[in-house]
């Protein structure tokens, strides 16, 4: 069999790349080592975590805020088995959806581990050990990433776990110790805190979500403490963890060099993810690696071997599903002779806690570092009529604009449903809008989106109306 393009890996990078290649008339194959399509994002990442975040949010609201809304419930309890089973159903329906899209676009799907025999020949080894080989003109490597683990802290998948196990626990932890105050730890911590677990976050840095604008982490930390009772220990370097079958002990060193011990029943290790290239046999094709286990690529996402591309978590840049998707489309269009472009500065980042956190563009810290003249405008949700109506008054929208031209340089939000609201900021910045442009656009009332308009009004001569 001979293909124009073979995609290795069926995550959001791989399957989107395959669809775009097929749309552009290329005979396309996709290889996935598991027997379901969708990769990390669909099976053990974005989608299951959001399914559990939604379920746990319903429970938390029912037990904490319904009463104030005038809704009284008796004997409210969690059926974790049903919650996990609903999550599995959501995954299954999306797995089926991707399989349908492969069929619709006439993409051949191969299940098995893909590895290079040579630059143009790929071997597919199925679980049963059977193998077959296909010929291909070009290859897109989209093999994604795996959780990073600490060499001195073995993950036993029982009580010392990664996000993958945390998405399918059989009981609600009493006390979960989370190593790492990044996006995944805070999201999964929120799930179990809402269901009744005590959450302790042990973080090496001096803030949670430290790569985002510092104002966001500060506000999120305050709200998670207030609403879910999160405990945070910053500047603590974890040195080990043990599991005695019922409980875990995590040890860390504080800034004074003292050893601090945390005791709980689960320890979630969420310190990041690393690119995954195991079993690809890249040497057979002559593909060179870059730094930190990533595949080295140029601006067109082409490796050192012409015709072999790599996208998504396995290459440099943010480890995000939508970044992988954009890269999949870029590579397909580049192969077809088009001139696609990705503005990496405008890839939004989102944390699906409550309140949600979202950002795009430069942070205030980055602008200071660049020495760029900028101005800020902020609007708090406590001044929003819509937020008052839903009792979601924590958070704010902060807009950073160029001091001289008024062009929006960064938007940083924390508040209700802002994971969707950030799209307005991306659109505005993609068209290089000024804060004044957005400030003059009509925003429906009452909506959370009005906070974006008000923050832009605040950034242009401090003329926010409702504060
Ligand atoms: P992946 O999705 O990792 O897919 C790679 C695929 O390649 C896998 O299916 C793997 O089995 C397959 N593969 C690997 N090697 C081979 C081989 N040799 N042969 C055949 N197949 C192979 N991102 C967001 O944008 N939003 C979120 O809300 C979000 N939430 C997340 C929550 C969690 C808990 C986690 C863990 C991640 C989350 N992410 C989120 C990150 C997101 O999942 C990744 O950025 C995204 O999946 C990367 O896509 P990808 O296509 O590069 O790789």
TrEMBL record:
<dbReference type="InterPro" id="IPR050151">
    <property type="entry name" value="Class-I_Pyr_Nuc-Dis_Oxidored"/>
</dbReference>
<dbReference type="InterPro" id="IPR004099">
    <property type="entry name" value="Pyr_nucl-diS_OxRdtase_dimer"/>
</dbReference>
<keyword id="KW-0520">NAD</keyword>
<comment type="similarity">
    <text>Belongs to the class-I pyridine nucleotide-disulfide oxidoreductase family.</text>
</comment>
<feature type="domain" description="FAD/NAD(P)-binding">
    <location>
        <begin position="3"/>
        <end position="328"/>
    </location>
</feature>
<protein>
    <recommendedName>
        <fullName>Dihydrolipoyl dehydrogenase</fullName>
        <ecNumber>1.8.1.4</ecNumber>
    </recommendedName>
</protein>
<keyword id="KW-1015">Disulfide bond</keyword>
<feature type="domain" description="Pyridine nucleotide-disulphide oxidoreductase dimerisation">
    <location>
        <begin position="347"/>
        <end position="455"/>
    </location>
</feature>
<dbReference type="InterPro" id="IPR023753">
    <property type="entry name" value="FAD/NAD-binding_dom"/>
</dbReference>
<dbReference type="InterPro" id="IPR001100">
    <property type="entry name" value="Pyr_nuc-diS_OxRdtase"/>
</dbReference>
<dbReference type="Pfam" id="PF02852">
    <property type="entry name" value="Pyr_redox_dim"/>
</dbReference>
<keyword id="KW-0285">Flavoprotein</keyword>
<dbReference type="Pfam" id="PF07992">
    <property type="entry name" value="Pyr_redox_2"/>
</dbReference>
<dbReference type="InterPro" id="IPR036188">
    <property type="entry name" value="FAD/NAD-bd_sf"/>
</dbReference>
<dbReference type="InterPro" id="IPR016156">
    <property type="entry name" value="FAD/NAD-linked_Rdtase_dimer_sf"/>
</dbReference>
<keyword id="KW-0560">Oxidoreductase</keyword>
<keyword id="KW-0274">FAD</keyword>
<keyword id="KW-0676">Redox-active center</keyword>
<dbReference type="GO" id="GO:0004148">
    <property type="term" value="F:dihydrolipoyl dehydrogenase (NADH) activity"/>
</dbReference>
<dbReference type="InterPro" id="IPR006258">
    <property type="entry name" value="Lipoamide_DH"/>
</dbReference>
<dbReference type="InterPro" id="IPR012999">
    <property type="entry name" value="Pyr_OxRdtase_I_AS"/>
</dbReference>
